[in-house]
Amino acid sequence: MKHFYLIFKGFALSAALIMFFVSASEAQTTLAKWDFNLETLDPSEGSGTAMNVGETTFTWATGVTGSPDRAWNTSTYPEQSIGSGTAGAEFMVSTAGYQQISISFYHRSSGTASRWAQIYYTTNGGSSWIPLTNNAGGLSPHDTFYLFEFDMSSIPAVDDNADFGFRVLSVFSPVAFEDGLGSSYGSNEAYHRSRVLEGSPYGPNGTWRFDDVTVIAQQPVGIGEDFSKRTAVYFQNGLLHIKSADNQAIKANVINILGQTVVNEFTVENTSTLYVNGLQGYFFVQLVNTKGEVATKKVFIP
Fold it and tell me: Among 267, 272, 230, which Cα is nearest to 250's?
């Protein structure tokens, strides 16, 4: 058993904590990304498939950052008050071996297309689709790219799934509205065009553009979870106890609630104790093993 002794005299800004968050960010993996710059529905990164849903057609148009950036420009949507949730775009991406999934995309509407989109996901290859959320009517004013991001990390069925996919579909407005041309509609009975005033009413030749469609995993399946379960941190009899069931040395830092390292990197082998005279309150003990797995434990020192 190893003993470490520390008389606490002050705080020092933690470069280690900063590096922890940098490492966590770098650990994320892009499973698929479509930037459409080569005017193809093949991903520019990773692997997956993109396709039209319903009777929609497509061309290519200017992307989010302008020329020469390109975007997927979809059209031929349903007529007014017909076929809500039947037309749009679909993306299929395997998440096998990965967890904590998120999706994001830039989305732009012409003035006569729907400002409302519903996002659906599948965990069985498209046999069935589950509503995730809507875009809150966020495609207005028209002719502007808007970034939409959706965290799916709270949905376990999305993790480690070769049959994952999502759709972005044009839907009726879920709230009553006046279309800016004098026509009024109740909730869930009509498409609300993206243009605010003047111009033409909603029509099937309105367009939706997509760019930089991305599916990201924060980490491979199992990373951090098992390691965290194999470690324990607790305070007893004036000592901070750190235990690891791994047959390897692990590095540890003690960090206060301000994000400052109060005990810089030291090595833990099986069981170590740390004399922490002068420390009081809640602290985080950050542990990193030789595989790069990270576990963070909270401890209270009275």
Answer: 267
Token pair in block for residue 225:
């979870």
pLDDT tens digits along 101-114: 999 999 999 999 99
Per CATH, the architecture of 2-25+223-301 is what?
Sandwich (2.60)
119 neighbors 168 (Cβ within 8 angstroms): yes
pLDDT digits over 262-284, tens only?
887 778 777 777 777 778 888 88
User: pTM of this prediction?
Assistant: 0.69
Whether the Cβ atoms of residue 251 and residue 23 lie closer than 8 Å to each other? no
Rounded-to-integer distance, Cα 292 and Cα 252, Å: 12
CA neighbor of 100 nearest in space, from 18, 148, 17, 161: 161
State pLDDT tens for residues 9-54.
333 333 334 344 444 444 689 999 999 999 999 999 999 999 999 9
Helix, coil or strand: residue 71: strand
Alpha-carbon distances, residue 45 vs 31, 37, 40, 93, 102 (angstroms): 7, 12, 12, 12, 16
DSSP 99-124: EEEEEEEEEEE-TTSBS-EEEEEESS
Domain ranges of the chain: 2-25+223-301, 28-220
